Amino acid sequence: MTEMKDKIDKNKLPGHIAIIMDGNGRWAKERGSHRIFGHQNGITAVKQAVEGAGELGVKYLTLYAFSKENWCRPQEEIDALLDLMVSSINSETKALIENNVRLLVIGDMDSLPPAIVDKLIDVIDRTKGNTGLTLIVALSYSARWEIARAARLIADDVRSGKIAGEDIDEEKFAHYLATADVPDPELLIRTSGEYRLSNFMLWQLAYTEMYFTPTLWPDFRKEHLHRAIVDFQKRERRFGKTSEQLNCD
Ligand code: IPE
Ligand code: IPE
Ligand code: MG
Fold first, then answer.
1. What is the CATH number of the domain that holds 129?
2. Nearest one of 240, 209, 224 to 44, comparing CA atoms
3. Residue 101 lies in a domain
4. Which residue owns the Cα nearest ligand 2 atom 10?
5. Domain for residue 189, yes or no?
6. 179-206 in b/e burial notation, b at 16+ Cβ within 10 A?
7. In a domain, 179, yes or no
8. What order do you get walking across the sheet with 209-212 strand by strand?
């Protein structure tokens, strides 16, 4: 039987895949367990996604791990998620380095506990020279926060005379986002059968192909990633043009 992975055209890989990792709570509930059990089991899926993307040669993988809205969850769930982050950073740093993965983080670092920020900065620094997969973790992230922050930073630079207001175009604006220098995602995957963006990368997803799967995040494996990529490769991306126009320059 042909494996899903063999159906992937290596010459047409999405350069950047973003994933909204959703469904941990429901996965645990189905098992009569606490939501936190679902988050713990989501770590296997994170490793599978990172390994799977790295093996294929995908250049960027962004994982939505914690939204700004998630701060409204019960405190014990937030604490458990933060603990999981710390233990995952501790246990996975070596693997990231060995596998040539570069770590980046997007989100409001000021709202995270300083001990976690320090750890993240350390791993970001230790992996900054790596040339394989760039793993971007969205932590305490919200797209509207990111866009409003960009506007504020631009206002500062206009006020100080660093740039002129009339010079701001889409390209310049994008440089003030947390993803400056990162190409936009070509493929977005959301698990758990929800069909929404939940305040994720609203600017960057303007022309991204979306793939929704009912699979709950803790059940997500490399095969699911392969399936999403195969589906992506069957699509025609027109960027506003007609189908016929795509075949000429
Ligand atoms: C995703 O799973 C993980 C985070 C948002 C941190 P959920 O915790 O949202 O799981 P469901 O959607 O309640 O099943
Ligand atoms: C989105 O999932 C955030 C993350 C995956 C980190 P949520 O479960 O928080 O989103 P909603 O509340 O269902 O939109
Ligand atoms: Mg959810």
1. 3.40.1180.10
2. 224
3. yes
4. 198
5. yes
6. beebebbbbbbbbbeeeebebbbebbbe
7. no
8. 102-106, 134-141, 60-67, 16-20, 187-190, 209-212
pLDDT tens-place string over residues 103-127: 999 999 999 999 999 999 999 999 9
Residue count of the chain, please give it: 249
Q: Which domain holds residue 95?
A: 15-143+185-235
Distance 107 CA to ligand 1 centre (A): 18
Q: What angle do CA 84, 198, 19 make, to 5 degrees?
A: 60
User: Of all atoms in ligand 2, which is nearest to the CA of residue 66?
Assistant: 6
Question: Exposed (0-12), middle (13-18) or buried (19+): which is 29, by Cβ within 10 Å?
Answer: middle
Q: What percent of the chain has pLDDT over 70?
A: 99
pLDDT of residue 2: 77
Q: Give, using CA atoms, the residue closest to atom 13 of ligand 1.
A: 25
The answer to whether residue 170 is domain-embedded is: no
- What's the pLDDT band for 249 if we cut at 50, 70, 90? low
Are 224 and 53 in contact by the 8 Å Cβ rule? The answer is: no
Output the CA–CA distances (angstroms, integers) from residue 46 to 24, 42, 51, 154, 244, in the order listed.
12, 6, 9, 35, 39
| 52 CA to centre of ligand 1 in angstroms | 22
Q: Across residues 145-150, what is the average pLDDT?
A: 98
How many domains does the chain fold into? Answer: 1
- What does pTM read for this prediction? 0.97
Residue 135's DSSP bridge partners are 61, 103
d(CA 122, CA 116): 10
Give the residue whose CA is nearest to atom 6 of ligand 1.
Answer: 66
